[in-house]
Amino acid sequence: LPGFRLLDPAASSEDDSAFLESVRSGLFADRIYTLTPRGAIVDLPRGATPHPDVRPVRADLGDPGGLADALADVAPDFVAITAWTRMETEAENIRVNGGAVRDLLAALSPEGSLEHVALMTGLKHYLGPFEAYGKGETPDTPFHEDEERLPYPNFYYEQEDRLRELGELLRTAG
Fold first, then answer.
1. What is the DSSP letter of 44?
2. Nearest 10 degrees: CA dihedral of 27, 32, 37, 38?
3. Which residues contact 150 (CB under 8 A, 6 or more apart)?
4. How far is Cα 47 from Cα 25, in angstroms, rounded to an integer?
5. Are the CB atoms for 90 and 154 separated by under 8 Å?
6. Are 109 and 68 spatial neighbours (Cβ–Cβ below 8 Å)?
7. CB-based contacts of 145: which residues, under 8 Å, 6+ apart?
8. Kind and range of the H or E run holding 122
9. Torsion sign (Cα): 133, 135, 141, 145
10. Most buried residue, 48, 103, 158, 172, by CB count within 10 Å?
11. Which residues are the active-site residues?
12. What does the pLDDT read at residue 4?
């Protein structure tokens, strides 16, 4: 079938791994899914095709005002953040991706429904930005959530810090 490829795990190759990574990044890049208190799943894609069980909300994670307008009637209790935008430098990755998390949480917070936020991180969380790969010490595998932060800037740390700020605000307000 055109567009489909069968993979044999016993005979996998680097080409198969590259193909799977391209499918994963193509399917999940720039997407955020939320679950509302009534159990509806809301997908915040950039140009995605709607699924029958998902109510798409078109919003630009880089536009705080537009994001707040798009999410004005969305009141999720759970948010899983899987999006990131690759920029030229790690400083720009930090600004753009930290801002996306900050602005998303700010847009969802007024409803008071948010109970849990999951930030999905990847290998860069443990090995650092692309510029740092292969430099310095790296933690032994398997990696764990409680690994120490690396000694250089990392956009994931900025995203985690924005989540911690929200947690502190919710604890002091509640």
1. -
2. -40
3. 126, 127, 128, 132, 136
4. 15
5. yes
6. no
7. none
8. none
9. negative
10. 103
11. 124, 156
12. 47
Helix (H) / strand (E) containing 34: strand 32-35
Task: Compute the distance between CA of residue 30 and CA of residue 14 in angstroms, rounded to an integer.
Answer: 25
Given the structure tokens 């790969």, which residue do they identify?
133
Helix axes 155-173, 90-108, angle to 10 degrees: 30
Compute how many other C-beta atoms are within 10 angstroms of the C-beta atom of residue 104.
24
Residue 103 phi, psi (nearest 5): -70, -35
First to last CA, the chain: 55
Q: What is the pLDDT of residue 150?
A: 85
DSSP string for 129-173: SGGGTTSS--PPSSP-TTPPPPSS--HHHHHHHHHHHHHHHHHHH
Q: What is the mean pLDDT of each run of 10 residues along the chain (174 residues)?
A: 44 56 54 61 60 71 90 84 87 93 89 84 81 75 82 90 85 72
Q: What is the pLDDT of residue 151?
A: 86
CB 30 within 8 A of CB 45: yes
Closest by alpha carbon to 96, among 107, 87, 83, 105? Answer: 87
What is the biggest distance separating any 2 CA atoms in the chain, rounded to whole angstroms? 56
